[in-house]
Amino acid sequence: MRSPVVFIDGDQGTTGLQIHQRLRNRTDLELLTLAADERKDSRRRTEAINACDIAILCLPDAAAREAVETIVNPAVRLIDASSAHRTQPDWTYGFPEMTPGQAERIANARRVTNPGCYPTGAIGLLHPLLQAGLIPDNYPISIHAVSGYSGRGRAGVEEYEGPDAANAPSYQVYGLELAHKHAPEIQLHAGLAQRPIFMPAYGAFRQGIVLTVPLALRLLAPGVDGATLHACLARHYAGATHVRVMPLEESRVLKHLDPQVLNGTNDMCLSVFSNIEHEHVLLSAVFDNLGKGASGAAVQNLNLMLMQQ
């Protein structure tokens, strides 16, 4: 029996390179790559994508849509790491832990859209709490997230590691027009009735994310507190391999969140912090933007899909 053929279209970008590194020593699959002089040859790319069993698209949105249109082989299955199809109803959302049965849906899907890095943390925190009715769907959600500069792709790496790296800012908030492309994805898959306020930033470190969501208990149902929210998250992710909910006793003594602590893994740690006096709660997610936020998630989805190949 032959090994399944996996083609990475765009394996020279930050996400594609990491996926290639995670797969290159696998013996249970055949990795199809194009030579440097063929990567921009549309004919060769079309041949490759139609010759594989599963294609992973690591392309800009427009190029990802074009790649999908070139597929004429009905047996080809797709994982799209771009944001082109994340809100499309005919694509399966590639967050296996999001809801019961999602891993099975991914395993059987023909078209899987990989979650965005920031949405992974936001949806991971919010979806279970909204589904349980602990946060109303019309709550005015605001999200703040700081990512390593690799989240910008090659441009970010060049700015911080290139010849002018000494001039790179130590911290920069962006998306000030409040129209970031991740907001609709978060709204849809978290189950929000209205668009959240999303405030992203980059720090002077290569990879890793800290994402936080503040909540005012006075806007939640009577009796809902930090412990209630934590218990819901703990139940939802009980037994999950790649998502951990920090025990309350650990979060009570924690003094800071390190965005880099899970770098190199496909894991995400969720936490709940409370101030009873002020009736404030802070939800947080820490993970690698190139791990659970991109390449690691793509490989996790690939592994699920290979089970049904």
Automatic annotation (TrEMBL):
SMART domains: Semialdhyde_dh
Taxonomic classification: Bacteria, Pseudomonadati, Pseudomonadota, Betaproteobacteria, Burkholderiales
Record's catalysed reaction(s): N-acetyl-L-glutamate 5-semialdehyde + phosphate + NADP(+) = N-acetyl-L-glutamyl 5-phosphate + NADPH + H(+)
Keywords: Amino-acid biosynthesis, Arginine biosynthesis, Cytoplasm, NADP, Oxidoreductase, Plasmid
Entry protein name: N-acetyl-gamma-glutamyl-phosphate reductase
Species this chain originates from: Paraburkholderia largidicola
Pathway assignment: Amino-acid biosynthesis; L-arginine biosynthesis; N(2)-acetyl-L-ornithine from L-glutamate: step 3/4
Record has Metal-binding as a keyword: no
One Pfam family, short name: Semialdhyde_dh
GO biological process: L-arginine biosynthetic process
EC number in record: 1.2.1.38
InterPro entries, per database record: AGPR, AGPR_dimerisation_dom, AGPR_type-2, NAD(P)-bd_dom_sf, Semialdehyde_DH_NAD-bd
